[in-house]
Design brief:
Blueprint lengths: L1 H8 L18 H17 L23 H7 L5 H8 L6 E4 L6 H9 L4 E6 L2 H13 L4 E5 L5 H4 L10 E7 L4 H5 L28 H7 L2 H12 L4 H12 L7 H10 L9 E2 L5 E2 L3 H11 L2 H15 E11 L2 H12 L11 H9 L13 H6 L5 E3 L9 H6 L7 E7 L1
Parallel strand pairs: 1-2, 1-4, 2-3, 4-7
Antiparallel strand pairs: 5-6, 7-9, 8-9
């Protein structure tokens, strides 16, 4: 419990650690005070909204088999060829996969490079079980590790890995498809299930879940979360609808929350938004994203994961980072440049104008931002390989629509 208290002392929005600057038009000091009060109250009072949330589905999947079919059902890895090319792994090297997931990238590495040793880390108990199954298939080559990025500094030494002992690191940020596809995990707004969203499953039973957040945060704090982590234009409207609905009955199901959010908009706006494939996107998509990122402290964890990679990679070692959201990508880009992540990012006039106008699509990112600065900028720790971020091909996006927002950045440790 002491460990969890220390963890949540860093779990406050805007003041997180402080490491990140994710706020736009939100007062960070005020929002930080509001959310700090919320977490203190939540951890010192009896939780009333998570009784219906089941334990991790991993508890019912003790005999998961890593067959090719089950892996395909769980997850389709993104940009596999590009990742293998950028990592440039050689036989006999040591690779750290910081986000094992369903093992798609790791299995491709094992099949393409002989004699490689891979440490498969993940915070999800189900992913850990899949990694254990894969370790039986590749005896001596796969070493499963269960833990968050923030726990790896204590876990990796138990495997004999210290500073500069790793040749390549892969970090696949965000939520995996197998988490989204299991209704019991509460990540998907299209599948009814308990409003959970905890990537750790039942590892920490007292950890607040998404249901706790939507039922306990006051309206202003809830709007701040949606604006910061979902870049939601209508955060205040959605927060008001949630507060009104929960006054009648606690919010505990995914479809229930999606319906409440949809009710804050006219019927014509329900699928008015479009994704990058110009497909209709539900108005609650950004709300679910924001809650997931907040509950799992994803941005601070991502920053910690990047720091772990910086520590364990030896000089000339390679880091590949796959991101699926603009906040993740901006954080990664600034980290590799050696910028102070606690400070507001430098923005061009064009970017400031975009922020002021609050463009609707958070995926629309200026690919030329900082292009001139990048040419002359050097980091003390990294050599960035690409001047521009890599994206999946049109063919891959058509075959796997979930790859549409993926971005790949690669750097070499100095």
């Amino acid at each position: 419990m002491v460990q969890m208290s220390l963890f949540y002392s860093r779990f406050m929005v805007a003041s997180c650690k402080p490491t990140l600057w994710v706020w736009r038009d939100v007062d960070p000091d005020h929002s930080s005070r509001i959310l700090s009060q919320f977490w203190r109250k939540l951890w010192t009072s009896e939780r009333t909204y998570t009784d219906s949330v089941p334990s991790s589905p991993g508890s019912d999947l003790r005999n998961v088999e890593m067959s090719s079919q089950s892996e395909k059902d769980f997850h389709t890895p993104v940009m596999v060829k590009e990742v293998l090319q950028c990592l440039d792994i050689q036989p006999g090297q040591v690779v750290l996969d910081l986000t094992f997931g369903a093992g798609g990238h790791l299995k491709a590495i094992l099949q393409s490079v002989p004699g490689v040793t891979v440490v498969a880390a993940d915070r999800d108990p189900l992913a850990f079980q899949l990694a254990q199954c894969l370790s039986q298939e590749y005896l001596g080559q796969v070493k499963p590790v269960l833990g968050r990025f923030s726990e790896l500094n204590n876990l990796l030494p138990t495997l004999g890995l210290g500073p500069r002992d790793v040749d390549a690191v892969l970090l696949d940020a965000g939520c995996s498809s197998m988490q989204m596809d299991l209704a019991e995990r509460g990540f998907s707004l299209s599948k009814d299930g308990p409003l959970d969203m905890r990537m750790d499953g039942d590892r920490y039973p007292d950890m607040p879940c998404a249901a706790d957040v939507v039922n306990a945060l006051d309206q202003q704090a809830l709007a701040s979360v949606l604006a910061a982590y979902g870049e939601e234009r209508h955060a205040k409207k959605i927060a008001a609808a949630i507060v009104q609905a929960r006054s009648v009955y606690p919010i505990s199901r995914t479809i229930q929350l999606a319906t409440i959010v949809a009710g804050a908009f006219p019927a014509s706006a329900l699928y008015a938004r479009r994704d990058r494939l110009q497909r209709p996107s539900h108005v609650a998509t950004k709300t679910f994203q924001a809650l997931r990122m907040f509950v799992n402290d994803e941005l601070n964890e991502l920053h910690t994961g990047l720091s772990v990679a910086q520590t364990v990679l030896h000089p000339k070692g390679r880091l590949c980072v796959l991101t699926f959201h603009s906040l993740e990508d901006r954080l990664t880009k600034r980290f590799l440049r050696g910028e102070d992540l606690a400070a507001p990012p430098c923005r061009s006039i064009r970017q400031r104008a975009k922020a002021q106008n609050r463009v609707e699509e958070e995926e629309k990112e200026d690919e030329e931002e900082y292009e001139e600065e990048e040419r002359g900028r050097e980091s003390a720790h990294w050599v960035i390989l690409q001047k521009k971020v890599m994206k999946p091909s049109e063919e891959e996006v058509q075959e796997n629509p979930r790859a549409r927002s993926a971005k790949l950045r690669t750097a070499i440790r100095r």
